[in-house]
Design goal:
Layout: H1 11-23, H2 26-33, H3 37-51, E1 56-59, E2 62-65, H4 67-90, E3 98-104, H5 109-123, E4 127-133, H6 136-145, E5 150-153, E6 162-176, E7 191-192, H7 196-205, E8 215-216, H8 222-227, E9 232-236, H9 237-245, E10 250-251, E11 258-267, H10 272-303
Parallel strand pairs: 3-4, 3-5, 7-8
Antiparallel strand pairs: 1-2, 5-11, 6-9, 6-10, 6-11
């Protein structure tokens, strides 16, 4: 007859434990895992039963790791990483010998992430590639857990075992669906939330447009909204170049630009040979994407009569 201490370890319990540890809250963990709070409590109870020690001190303020919980955290991360490595290795299809999982925010897939995959397939035909989509929190969790080996993000969060490289300087520019849009008379502007730095620079430079009554936290996906309506918004130059070329979108003259760097977050334990191929191909693709963005800025300088394009929030 077995007791609770003999139960096998469940990966779901480990992931739930790490989410509560990261957020310091059963409620926040339940929201991020898309399960009920009682499900989170039950999983943590099962884990504590299996280990024979409480992992968290619970209070109205939230959940704080106990000494035993802090000790267990690094093992939980290691176990999940080993599990993910095994799962990915077993899942490699016939004809492939290596595997790489890449994640990126929505805005960074078109004309960057997809082209990176093209480059990887050409450089390493035996590489099995998996692609993930997510917001920064989700992608960072996937990286720490070993589900992903590299992620493309705008605002990376550094965690133990991860390193960060700057990939390129994105430029956010204001575009509109009609050619006569005027920076001084925009009645159809939609606000795209590109993060705290953009929001504060925008409030400084364009206070009258800061709360237009419609805010999107959807990144470059807003291009589809703008194209199909009488609207204008800040979007990545790289992303909108093809729409400008085809006459579906137009640059708004005299609108300041906003430099917005793109970062690659790497797992430090990624196979060095794969890392080298991935970094080389990403650099090639990023150079082409940066050139697309520069071509759009050049056009903006032309419609501004070759004056310098101001940076949003800088006087």
């Amino acid at each position: 007859m077995s007791n609770s201490h003999d139960r096998g370890m469940d990966i779901t319990l480990l992931k739930t434990f790490l989410e509560v540890a990261a957020t310091g809250s059963f409620v926040s963990a339940s929201e991020r895992l898309y399960v009920t709070q009682s499900a989170v409590s039950l999983r943590i109870q099962r884990l504590e039963d299996a280990l024979g020690k409480p992992m968290f001190t619970r209070s109205k303020a939230g959940a704080e790791l106990t000494n035993a919980g802090r000790e267990f955290e690094r093992y939980a991360l290691s176990m999940i990483r080993v599990w993910e490595e095994a799962r990915q290795q077993v899942a490699i299809p016939d004809g492939f010998t290596r595997s790489l999982t890449i994640g990126a925010q929505y805005s960074l897939w078109p004309r960057l992430g997809f082209r990176w995959i093209d480059g990887l397939q050409a450089a390493a035909p035996d590489l099995n590639i998996r692609a993930e989509l997510g917001m920064p929190d989700r992608l960072t969790r996937f990286l720490t857990e070993g589900i992903m080996q590299v992620g493309l993000l705008y605002m990376p969060q550094l965690r133990p075992g991860l390193s960060v490289d700057k990939v390129m300087e994105e430029e956010l520019v204001m575009v509109a669906s009609r050619p006569d849009a005027d920076i001084n008379n925009l009645t159809d502007y939609v606000f795209v939330d590109w993060g705290p730095e953009f929001v504060s620079a925008h409030a400084l430079a364009l206070p009258e447009l800061t709360n237009p009554g419609l805010t999107f936290s959807l990144g470059a996906m807003v291009a589809e909204y703008v194209i199909n309506r009488k609207a204008s918004a800040y979007l990545p130059a790289r992303y909108v170049k093809r729409y400008i070329d085809s006459g579906q979108l137009y640059l708004v003259a005299d609108a300041p630009r906003f430099p917005y760097p793109v970062w690659a977050v790497w797992r430090e334990d990624l196979d060095p040979t794969i890392a080298e191929i991935a970094k080389t191909t990403l650099t090639q693709v990023a150079n082409a994407a940066e050139a697309d963005g520069e071509a759009v800025l050049e056009r903006l300088r032309d419609i501004n009569d070759n004056t310098v394009v101001e940076v949003l929030g800088q006087t």
